[in-house]
C-alpha cells in the first residue's frame, strides 16, 4: 500500500503551483540567479519519518532559517542568562533588516532579526573560540539538527559577503554598544557563512521535527539541545519568526515558523511534526509566496494551529462505578489515555464528588498509556488523602505507568495487575 | 475527601503573598484608592469547575481584560474582514497607551493596545446601534462570558472619564483617519464603561475558561462566540496581550493572557483551563506584580506552556500483530488514545511498513476515545487503499468513534464490535 | 514718476503666474472651494510703505501664519519662561500636523507645529481669561500687527471645527501631559477661530513688517510686542517656519517665514522689510507653490538672505590723517556710516596701530549717522585710554550722535562741531 | 594705547572660568586625557585682525568643527547638486551620532550629523581620488581656511579609529544605500583623519572669519570657497550646527556655529566677525559648557544675533531740498551710508513723493560709501524714469560709487563731482 500522505502533499503542492507572483531576493546576485520555479514540501514526524512532494532534495542556502537553530545552540552552549542579557525576546514589528536595538542598551529586540541573529552567532560555542572554530561549531550544530553533515555554498557566501553592507553596519553598531565584543567584520563573516549552509527541504523538515521532538533529532536520536531551550526557541519563533507579518501568521497559520530569503520556510508543531517548504519567489515581507500559501493550507486542513483545541483532549475518566456491595464493595475509577494536569483534575473531581462511601477505592490505569509529572503527583496526593480519610487504595497498573508509587506522608497504596485481583484477592 | 487543587492554589498564593512591590494605578483616583493587599487566584476547567484561593469573590473593574473578550464579540458580530480592516494583529512592542497606529492607514496595530480596543468597542453589535445600545451589547456579551449578569462601577467609570484625556486623544486621532466613524467622545465614553464592568477573580476564571473551551461557557453551556473567533483571540493574546513585556511572557509563561490595570490577570490554555488572579499592585509595564509571579509559578509547576510538548502525545499504535495463521490470518493494528494528525500518520506508517501479506486487516479502535477530523479522513483513506490492494478491512469500533465510516471510491469496510467477531465471525 | 518697485513686483508675479501645479487644501471644505488662481505679492517697508502687485486686497483666512504672531503675543503676555516651559524651540523635521511632543514631558517641539500653536493659543492673555476673552485677545493682537481691526470668517471656522479631529487628538494628548490645563475642546475651538481670521496680502505684509521693524507697527506706530520677543519669533520662524522643508528654505531663501494652508506666505527680514504672497495651490509640504517660487526669486534678486553679507558693511574709517605739524599737529580719524561692533573694532585698530605720536587726537563723527550701544561704549573706552596715555581727545559730533559722552574713570573729551574748531580754537 | 577688545575678552573669560561643570569626551581615550581647565576665546575680524584671551595658541583636534568647512569644500569641489543629492539640509533634532537617514533614500538629514559629515568627506576633491589623496585635499582645504598649514594628531587619530564602531556602522549603512560608493572603512578612516587635524583657538577664529568674510581668508586673501557656498554653509550651521540644542542656540545666541568634542566652538557672523572658544568640558549635548556660556555672553553684550536689527540700517536719505529758485531750481536728494535694497526703496519713495516740479534733479552720493547691486539698479531706474518724465538728472559721485552709470533705454544722466558743479556749471 502507498501512503496517503505523499499524495496529500502532492495535491497541496499542485494547488499552489500556478502562483508565480513574488520576486527572487534581488540583493544577492547568486540568489537572484536561482531557479524560481522550484517547489517542494516535506513533513517529518517526531519519529523521523519524512514525507515529501516536489523538489525536496534540491539544496539551497538556509539563510535566516538558521536563526532559530543557532539561537538554540547559543542557549545550549552559554545558558539562558548570558544570551538573554545580549538579545531580547520582544517582537519588533519591523522588517528583518531593521536595526531594532533597544534605545538604552543597544540590545537587539529579538534573535530573529538580523541584529539579534548576528549577536547570537557570536554567542555560540565557548567564548574563546576563534571565528573559524565558531563557524565550525555552528555548522556542526546545524548538521546535528539535520541529522547529516551539511556543507557551505562558497559562491553564495562570497556573493553575500560582498553585499553585506547592512549587516556590517548592524554589527559595528552592536560593537559600539558592546553587545558584540568580537571583531564586527569577523562576526558578520561568520554569520554569512552560517547563512550559506546548504540544506534541502527534507533537511529542513527534519530540523523542524527536531524542535517539535523536544530537541531530539528523530533520525539520529541525538539530543541536539535541551528541552527548555526548545520551548524558548519555539515561543520566539511564534511571535517573531515572520518579521513584520508575525501577527498575521500567528493568527492565520498559528505554527512557530521561520522563513529564509532563498525560499525556504519551516514550521514546528510541538510534539507533532516538522514541516518545510521551498519556493524561491518572495513577498514584500521577504517570505516565500507559495510557502506561505502551503502553510496556510496545511494549517487549515490539518488543524495544526497551536491555539486549536485538540480534539484529543478529553474523557480521562472512562468510568466511575461500584463493584460488589456491602462492606466489600469497591469504588472503581477507570482512567484512560494520556493524563496531564487537566486530566488529573478530572480524576480529583470524580474522587471528591463521589466522596466514596466504599471502604476500598481502585484507580484503574489499565487504559492509561502516559501520565505527566504534575498529573502523577496529583494522583498520588489523591491516594494519600483517600488513605487519610480511611480508605484502602489500589492502583491497577499492569504496565507500570506509575512505577514505585509513593503517596507520601500517611499515604498507602497497593499496586495490582487487574481489578479482578482486588475483587478476589489471591490467597 | 478535600480536593488537592485548592490546597495547591493556597500554597502558591502564600508563596507570593509577601511581595508588596509595585504600585497601584495612580492615574485614576478611584483605582488608587483600592486595597493593595487583596490577593486571589482561581482555576476554571473547561467543564466549569472553579477552584480558588484567597479573595476570589471580591469585585473589581475589568479594565483592559475586557479587550480580548470584546474583540471576540466584535469578530462574532461583524465578521473577520470588517474588524481586520480596522485593527491589525501585529505586536507593537509598545506600552498600552501608545498610539501605535500604522503610519499610512491609521489602523491601530492590534486590539490589545488602547487604540485598538477603542476601535473594537465601536465595532461591536450592529453598525446602527446608538452608544447606549452598544454599551449594553458589550456588557451583555461580557456577562455571557462570565455566566452571570455583570454590573458597572459608576464611580470608577466617572473617575476614569474625567481623566480620559489620552484615550480621547487616541479616539480623535482614529476619527481623523476614519478608523472611527462614530463620535470620538461617545466611543471613549462607551469604552470607559466597558472597562468599568465589575468582575470577581472567579468570574475572570470562567471567562478565560470560556476561551479555553472553544467559546462555550462551561457553566451555562452557551456558545458565546464561534470557535474560529476564539482561535484568533487567543493568538492575539499570546503575542500582544502583555504589551511591551509580551515576549518575556510568551517565553517564560507561554499562556495567552491579558492583564488589567485594576490588578486582574487572566490566562487561557486551549482545551484545558482558564486561570485568573487578582492583586492590585502593578509593575512598570502595568501588569500585576504578584499576578505575574503566580502565573510563572503555575506555568512552571503544571507544564502549561503552549510550546510544551504534552507528555500525553504518544503511542497511538498500541500493538501490530498477527492473529491466527494461514489464509485466515488477521493483521491487527490496535490503536489507542486520542488520535490527531500525528497519530494517524503513525497508523499509516505501520500499515505501509508492514505491507500486510495477510488478506484480512483489522483496525482495532476499542482503546481509542477520540479522533479528530483529519485523522478520521486519513484512516478511511487507509481503509480504501487497503481495499484497493485486495485486502478485506475491518474496523473494531464498539463505541462508534467513527460513525458511518465511508472509505470512498472503491473502499469497503466492515464494522464490528470486537476482534473476536472477526476471528470467529458469527454464523 | 511711478515707482519702479510695483513694476518689479508685477514682473516677478508674471514669471510665476503660469505655474498651476499643486492642490488646494483638501481637508477643509471651505478652503477647497477657494479660487485657485488668485495671486498677489506685497512688500511693506519698516517705514510703513506698502508696494504690491496682483490680488493684494482679497481676504483669506490667516491659518498657520497666525502662529508666529500669536507666539509673539504669548511671549509678551506671559514672559519667556512660562511659554518656554510649555513649548520648545527645536525644529522637528516633521509635517505640520505631526504630534511631535517630547517623549518625556509631552512638550511640543516648537510653536510652529500644530501641537505647539494650540498650546501657545492657551498661553495668550491672562491665565484667567475665559475662551471667548482669549480669542478676543488674540484677534486684538493680530489686528495690532496688521494695523486695522481684523474679522473672522465664521464659515471657514465652522467648516474647520467640524474637521478638527486631529487637532482635538493633539489637544487631548497635550491635556493628558498637563501641557494644556484648559479644556481641550475649548482650546481647539479658540485656536480654530484664531486660524479663521481674515487677512489680505497687504495686511500680511504689514504684519511681517512689524516683525521686521522690531515689533513696532510701521503704520500705526504701536509697539505691538517688545523687541526681544521679535528676535525669538524670527529665530523660530527661521528654523521651524516651513515645517519639514525648513532646511531647504533656510538655505535657498534664507528669510524667516511662515506659510498658511489658505495660500498665504510671509517673510520678515529684520530691519528691512516684510513680504507677503497669496496663491492657494499648495505643495506636498503644505506651502503655497507659487508663493515659494516668488520668495526664491525675490531673495535671489534682492540679496535678502539673512546669511548674505550686506554690501553696506564697510569702510567705517574714512580717513586717518595728520593735520598741521609740530606740537600742534592733530591726529584726525574721520569715521562714516552706521557703526556697530565691527566698525568700532576698526576704529580701535586704527587708533592702536597708529599709536599716535601727536598730542591731540580727533574722532570726527560728522559723517556718522548712527552708532549702536556696544560701538558707543568701545568708542568712549578709546577716548578714556587715549586720555590716560596723555592725549587730548576731541569728538567732532555736529549732530550729537553720541550725546553727553562720558569716557569714564580718568577719561576726558571735548565735543566740538567741526575739525576746524580744533585747528583754530575760538579765542 | 592698548586695545580695549582683549581686555573685554579677558573679562568675559574670567566670568565663566569658575564653571567646572561638564565632562571630557569619554569615549576616546586620548580626548579623555586632555587638560580640562584650558580656556581661551578669540575674535577674528573680516580684515584679519585676531584678538584673544586665554589659551588661544594651544592646539587641539578640530573634530566636528571640521564639518562645516569640509561641507564647504565638497560644495566647492563638486557643485551643489551632487552634494545635495547625497546629503540633506534639514535639521534632525537628534544627537550627533544618531544615524538620521531619510527612510526611503538613506540620505543623511544634514551635513552636521556624523552620517552627513562622513558622506561629505567622500565628496571632497575629484571623484577618482584615492583615500590618501582625499585626506590631503581636506587637510589642504582646512589649512586654507586657517591660513597656515595644519597638521594631524596621529595619536588621537589612532585612538579614535580604534573606537570608531559607530561611525563604521553609519558608513556601512550609507554604503548599503549607495549614498557612499567608496569602501566604508576607508571613508571612516579618512573622516577620522579629518577630525584629527590640530587647530588652535586662533586658527578657528580665522577659519570662522573666512566664512564671515564671504569665503575669503582675511589673512591670506585667498578665496577658499565661493560666496554662494558660504551662504549655504552658514544657513546649515544656523539650523543644524548645535545638534539637538540647535533651537535653543538659534534663539538665545543666534550665531551660525559649530562645536567639536575636543572642546572647540566657533561662530561666524556674516560680514562681521569669526569667534572661537576652547574649553574641553562638555554638556550632555556634546557642546563645550564654558564655550556656550561665552557665546551667550558675547551675543548679548554685542548684539551679534542674526535676527537683531542692526542699529545701522537707517537714514539713507540725508536730505531732500531745493537749491535755488525759478527755472534753475535744483531738487537735491542727498544720500548717505551704505545702500541696499531697503535704502534704495527710500530713495525711490522720496523721488516719487516729491514728484519734483523742478526741472533738474540731483542725486548726491558724496556721503554714500557703498551700494549693492540691486540698489544700484533701482537707482539707475529712477534716473531713467526721471529722464522720461522730462527731468535732467545729475549724479554727484566724487568717489565713483556708481561707475559708468547706464540708466538704460531713454535714460540719461550727467555725473559730476559736487553739487556746486551743477549749480554753477563750469563754462
UniProtKB/TrEMBL annotation, chains A, B, C, D:
SUPFAM superfamilies cross-referenced by the UniProt entry: beta-lactamase/transpeptidase-like (SSF56601), SpoIIaa-like (SSF52091)
Catalytic activity, EC: 3.5.1.2
GO biological process, one term: glutamate biosynthetic process
GO MF entry, a single one: glutaminase activity
InterPro entries, per the entry: Beta-lactam/transpept-like (IPR012338), Glutaminase (IPR015868), STAS_dom (IPR002645), STAS_dom_sf (IPR036513)
Reactions catalysed: L-glutamine + H2O = L-glutamate + NH4(+)
Sequence ranges assigned to domain STAS in this UniProt record: 332-402
Subunit structure: Homotetramer.
Family: Belongs to the glutaminase family.
Protein name per the record: Glutaminase
Species the sequence originates in: Streptomyces hainanensis
Gene responsible for this protein: glsA
Amino acid at each position: 500500500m502507498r501512503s496517503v500522505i505523499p499524495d496529500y502533499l502532492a495535491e497541496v503542492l499542485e494547488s499552489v503551483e500556478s502562483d508565480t507572483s513574488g520576486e527572487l531576493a534581488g540583493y544577492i546576485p547568486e540568489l537572484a540567479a536561482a531557479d524560481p520555479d522550484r517547489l517542494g514540501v516535506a513533513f517529518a514526524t517526531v519519529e523521523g519519518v519524512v514525507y515529501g512532494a516536489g523538489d525536496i532534495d534540491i539544496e539551497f542556502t538556509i539563510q535566516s532559517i538558521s536563526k532559530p537553530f543557532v539561537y538554540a545552540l547559543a542557549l545550549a552552549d552559554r545558558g539562558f542568562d548570558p544570551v538573554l542579557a545580549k538579545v531580547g525576546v520582544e517582537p519588533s514589528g519591523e522588517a528583518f533588516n531593521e536595526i531594532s536595538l533597544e534605545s538604552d542598551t543597544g540590545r537587539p529586540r529579538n534573535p530573529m532579526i538580523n541584529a539579534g541573529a548576528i549577536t547570537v552567532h557570536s554567542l555560540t560555542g565557548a567564548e574563546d573560540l576563534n571565528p573559524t572554530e565558531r563557524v565550525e561549531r555552528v555548522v556542526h550544530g546545524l548538521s546535528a539538527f539535520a541529522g547529516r553533515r551539511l556543507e557551505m555554498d562558497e559562491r553564495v557566501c562570497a556573493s553575500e559577503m560582498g553585499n553585506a553592507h547592512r549587516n556590517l553596519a548592524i554589527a559595528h553598531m552592536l560593537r559600539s554598544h558592546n553587545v558584540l565584543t568580537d571583531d564586527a567584520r569577523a562576526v558578520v563573516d561568520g554569520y554569512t557563512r552560517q547563512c550559506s549552509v546548504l540544506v534541502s527541504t527534507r533537511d529542513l523538515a527534519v530540523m523542524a521535527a527536531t524542535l517539535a521532538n523536544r530537541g531530539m533529532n528523530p533520525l539520529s536520536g541525538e539530543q541536539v539541545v535541551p528541552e527548555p531551550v526548545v520551548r524558548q526557541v519555539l515561543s520566539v519563533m511564534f511571535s517573531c519568526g515572520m518579521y513584520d507579518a508575525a501577527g498575521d501568521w500567528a493568527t492565520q497559520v498559528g505554527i512557530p515558523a521561520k522563513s529564509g530569503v532563498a525560499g525556504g520556510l519551516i514550521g514546528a508543531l510541538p510534539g507533532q511534526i516538522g514541516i518545510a517548504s521551498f519556493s524561491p519567489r518572495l513577498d514584500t515581507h521577504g517570505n516565500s509566496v507559495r510557502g506561505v500559501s502551503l502553510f496556510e493550507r496545511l494549517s487549515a486542513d490539518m488543524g495544526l494551529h497551536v491555539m486549536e483545541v485538540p480534539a484529543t483532549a478529553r474523557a480521562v475518566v472512562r468510568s466511575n462505578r461500584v463493584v460488589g456491595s456491602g462492606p466489600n464493595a469497591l469504588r472503581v475509577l477507570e482512567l484512560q489515555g494520556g493524563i496531564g494536569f487537566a486530566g488529573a483534575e478530572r480524576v480529583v473531581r470524580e474522587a471528591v464528588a463521589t466522596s466514596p462511601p466504599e471502604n476500598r477505592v481502585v484507580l484503574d490505569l489499565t487504559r492509561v498509556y502516559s501520565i505527566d509529572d504534575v498529573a502523577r503527583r496529583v494522583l498520588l496526593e489523591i491516594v494519600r488523602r483517600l488513605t487519610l480519610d480511611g480508605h484502602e487504595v489500589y492502583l491497577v497498573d499492569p504496565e507500570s505507568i506509575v512505577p514505585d508509587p509513593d503517596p507520601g506522608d500517611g499515604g498507602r497504596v497497593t499496586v495490582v495487575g487487574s481489578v479482578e485481583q482486588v475483587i478476589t484477592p489471591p490467597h
